[in-house]
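Q: Structure tokens for this one, please.
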Amino acid sequence: MNRPLTVIDMHTGGEPLRIVTGGYPDLPKGTILEKRAYVRDHLDHLRRILMFEPRGHADMYGALLVEPDLPGADLAVLFMHNEGYSTMCGHAIIALGRYAVDQGLVPPGSDLTQVNIECPCGLVRAEVTMRDGKPAEVGFKSVPSFLFACDQALTLDHCGKVNFDIAYGGAFYALADASQFGLEFGRDPVSAFVEAADALTKAAQAAIPLSHPDADDLAFLYGTILTDGRDTYSDVPTRNVCVFADRQVDRSPTGSGVTARLAAMHARGQIAAGQARVFESITGSRFSGSVASVTTCGPHPAITANVSGRAFYSGKAEFIVEDDDPLAAGFLVR
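A: Here is the predicted structure, written as tokens:
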């Protein structure tokens, strides 16, 4: 680390986003997936410094802005977390939409400002609602998303048989009703949801090969979303918790997870195009989501989704590393 790392911190529905504003070296030119591979293989020590203690924590999330490669992209982003690098992150898109307008990366419009963000999963279009000349709510239109595997079942230790789907919303998730684990939102501790979700993720990763028509780098199970089972369209909000990467808990409803749930709901005939659902997280924060259009993704019937929420600033910092600090590289205690 040759110079300080500077960041601006935001949160969306309680889920942190640490946006890197300085300190990274320039990356080689190439596609977004090539940049992701380069950062993973050559600069991962910087992720650990930013995400891990003593500067971060086990549930920290980050965004590194890089040079766009796709035509029409206003900016490009690499996502990072406690285990590595994600392919899509909806809560980050919501925060980056506001950030891009506030920082002058995109000139503001009068009522709506469009921000085109290149992600490892593809181009995501964010729309920033302007109120009194300032960014407010941010929505985004997802990449094509689909139900990959329907009505799967695995037998888990201490849980027995568990039924679940696997759906893609920019990343692949296992989707399961939490009641199968004897869990109830508002009653059971988050730690119990983490244990159940992590068990399903590991079992599904071992049992079910994934594929994506666009790139092999997208074909991995990112985590598990446990739901309250209220999948059929209703005016009543539906609750879920997403456990991803290395047992990381999303404080927001999870933008890519909401997209994956909408793809599964639509494939099952539980929601129609244009119908809006409210998705609630473990913090009580909410995203609105709807099916924007029906499309295809390779051999899969697919949808695009609209997901919206609000992001807020929480601080900014400059991080340094002293040469004789034995814990400079970062650590986690769980």
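A few notes: Residues 146-309 form a domain with the Diaminopimelate Epimerase; Chain A, domain 1 fold (CATH 3.10.310.10). The chain has a mean pLDDT of 97.
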